Amino acid sequence: MHSSTLRGGLIGCGFVSQHHIEGWKSVPGAQLVALCDVAPARLQQASERSPEARLYTDAAAMFARESLDFVEICTRPNAHPALVSLTAEHGVHVLCQKPAAETREDLVAMMATCERAGTRLMFHENWRFRAWYRAFRTHLDHGTIGRPLRLRLSHRDTRALRPDGFSDQPYFTQMPRLILFEMGCHLIDTARYLLGEIVAVTATIRRCGEGHLGEDLATLSLEFASGALGLLDMTWCAPAEVGRAAWALNETVVEGTQGALRVLSDGSLEHLGLSGQRSRKPVELPPDDQVYQAAYTAAQRHFIAGLLTGEPHETSAADTLKTMDVVWAGYESAEQRRTIVLPIFPESRPSRAD
Hints:
By secondary structure, the protein is α/β, with parallel strands linked by helices. The protein is built from ten helices and 15 strands. A hairpin with a 5-residue loop joins strand 13 and strand 14 (278-281).
């Protein structure tokens, strides 16, 4: 990149965009200069968070009038292929919201489009950028618990049982694939970040709540290339078991040959020794009211740093394809009631850029 300050646009100003817009205010080397949404009301609301940005209701018009270095796409997944293609045609780099795509064919096509155009495509998987998971990975790399044997990661919420549970994102009620698609990609990416590639998945899904089409409960049993096992437990029909709901802090435990490591409700880590001894591992966190937002900002900083330095992105399209392959394999497993074996990837662990 030739400019030290990159000019960006954001397409899609729905509920989650508030965190993306807020994040761009704290990313060195980047400036959000344009906002785009087909709904004028959403666009105007987003403009209140970024008053300097010019407003567009048509993405093609935005590209015609703006000189952009990058675009962040925050729309529903079914719109991603066309918008990624449009962005790549203008030689602009893409940071795209998760889930990456509805089908593997769509994601592979998006990757090919960007490769032909010579543009970067990174996906906004921000869980791995949460401070406790960065610290967790460091402890695993340093051998704090020896060789990892098993991961347990849970996401629990009551939204599928509450009358207003989907009021912030009402389109969720019409999605035939729901919690495994929307939340599963987060859990799977985090699992891969911590323990490496997944080579087999066995999944069970259920719809227990009313008023929505898709599943609101999913359990995935995983086998990693290292031989470790994993259990991903996600439900929108149960109260959270770990406090700090405002932080979206999830119960996470990795057991190893020299004890276990888990996330505590204050964002720190605890090491459990083989003889029952406990030791707290502090994690540096921002102020309480900034913890949730911080992961969004960290993902955006990583994206811009990669554009400026040429360093690879952790959640590149190629890496995200591995995450989404597990999501799609999970649905295949649940439908066929069997274990799905995935290809064994050359890398035993995903890369990490600090």
